[in-house]
Predict the 3D structure of the following.
Amino acid sequence: MVGLALKANSDLHYLRRIGADTATVNAKSQDREDWLVLLAVNHLLSGLEAFIAANLSDFSPPELKLEAGFPRRRGVGSPTVHLP
């Protein structure tokens, strides 16, 4: 995403330097803005995910037990969760 934002910025500077028409410059400016907003949202969500993961790292109730319970027949089984 950072690379695409930098490319849009470079393209915008190029269009302004060669004197491209206003519609093209405005479209590229909007494209750059879209990439920057997407980059900001991505970083905020990544930070939120890291915050939640850090706070839930010690969360493991002792009564919750996860076992891989595969049937003895052919095919794919699914893990089972046993609760008391």
Notes: The helical segments are 2-18, 22-55.
